[in-house]
Design brief:
There is one protein chain. This protein has four helices and no strands. It is mainly α. α1 packs antiparallel against α2. It is elongated and about 35 Å long. The two termini are 17 Å apart.
């Protein structure tokens, strides 16, 4: 159940005014999906957890650099790695 919940706090910290607006919009979508993942695990809803996991990974495929620019304080590579590990642990099979 490694969701990297500290990232939730990091994503909602005040961002620079000049932050990449596209990246910020997608960062908010990732934040919502992370909150959904947390709720899904609390309710043992693995199917929804996995849907949110794939949603996050799909966002990263097309907006990784924008999000990293908007939120430079977060190591998105490690975050993505954790999402991949979550997929392997909870969503395989």
């Amino acid at each position: 159940k490694r969701l990297l919940l500290p990232l939730l706090a990091a994503l909602v910290l005040p961002m620079a005014v000049e932050a990449n607006p596209i990246g910020m919009e997608y960062a908010k979508k990732v934040l919502q999906a992370l909150e959904n993942q947390k709720k899904a695990l609390e309710n043992n809803d693995i199917e929804f957890f996995c849907e949110q996991n794939e949603y996050i990974l799909s966002i990263f495929k097309v907006t990784y650099n924008d999000i990293q620019e908007a939120v430079p304080t977060i190591d998105l590579y490690d975050f993505r790695k954790t999402q991949l590990e979550n997929r392997d642990e909870f969503c395989s099979g």
